[in-house]
C-alpha cells in the first residue's frame, strides 16, 4: 500500500508538528481540530517552525511554501475519508481517543491504517474499538516533532506485519529513526522517563533539595540536556500525571504512584510552560 494522503487528528503541539513533518516530506496532509482558532494556531506554529528551517538554510523558501500548501485544515473527521493513514494526536485520554477512532473507522476505506501518537495508552485496547485491529498501530513521535528523530512504533496484539512494514518505511521517509516496541504501558520511553521525573518530584516534595539543585545534579552529573523538573514543565504536568496513572493502573506496582505534589499542581492548574507556571515560571 502506498501512503499518499495523511490525516492528523489534533492541531496542538504534537499534531501540528506531525502535520509539518509529513507535509515537508511530500505527503498531502489534512489536519483536523474542533475549531478554526485551534487550527489557525496550529498553522501559525507550522509557519514559524518552517521559517526557522529556512533561516538556518535547511529548507528553501519555495520548499517551505510547498509544505504549507500541502496542508488542508478541517473541523470535520468526515473529510478524512480518502486518507491512506490517519495519525491521532489528541490529549492522553482513552475515552477521547477511542471515540475518535470509532468514528474514523466508519469513515475510512478498509485498507486505510489508523495510528495513535499516544505516549502510554494500550495500543491493543485502542485497536479493539475498531473493525481493523490488524491495520492499527502506535506511532509515538517526540516533542518537538520536527527536530526529534525518534519514533516509537508500537505493535498491538493483532497488528499485521504488513502494517508494521508500511509504518516503519513511512517513518524512515520522514527522516525519522523508527524503533519497534512491544505493547506494554508506557512503552520504553515513558516507562523509563516518568519514574525518573516522578522521583525528582518526590525529592522536591520531601525537601531533599531545591528544584534548581535537583535539575543541576541531573544536568551536570548525568549529562542530561535539561533537568527532570524543567523537562516535566516542558512536557506538561498534566501529561506526566496521565502517563503515571496509566503505568500505575497497568502494572499495579506502587513504584509508579504519582507524587502527591504532582497531583496537587495539576489540580491547581499549574501545568508547566503551557500555562505559564509549573515548577518554574515562564
What's a concise summary of this model?
With 282 residues, this protein is α/β, with parallel strands linked by helices.
Task: Describe the protein's architecture and organization.
The chain contains 11 helices and 8 strands. It is 47% helix and 14% strand. The mean pLDDT is 97. Strands 3-2-1-4-5-6-7-8 form an 8-stranded mixed β-sheet, with helices on both faces. It has helices spanning 13-24, 36-55, 61-69, 94-107, 123-127, 161-173, 189-205, 211-222, 228-235, 237-251, 260-267, and strands at 5-9, 28-32, 71-74, 85-88, 113-116, 136-140, 150-155, 177-182. The chain has 2 domains: 5-182, NAD(P)-binding Rossmann-like Domain (Rossmann fold), CATH 3.40.50.720; 191-274, N-(1-d-carboxylethyl)-l-norvaline Dehydrogenase, domain 2 (Orthogonal Bundle). The protein is α/β, with parallel strands linked by helices and 282 residues long.
CATH architecture of the largest domain: 3-Layer(aba) Sandwich
Instruction: Name the poorly predicted regions.
Output: none
**Main beta-sheet annotation:** 8 strands, mixed
Radius of gyration from CA coordinates: 19 Å
Query: In CATH, what is the homologous superfamily of the largest domain?
Result: NAD(P)-binding Rossmann-like Domain
- What is the CATH fold-level name of the largest domain? Rossmann fold
Q: Identify the strand order in the major beta sheet.
A: 3-2-1-4-5-6-7-8
Q: What is the total number of structural domains?
A: 2
> What is the CATH class of the largest domain?
Alpha Beta
Spatial shape = globular
Helical content stands at 40-55%
- Beta percentage is 5-15%
Q: Helices and strands, in N-to-C order?
A: EHEHHEEHEHEEHEHHHHH
Helix run count:
11
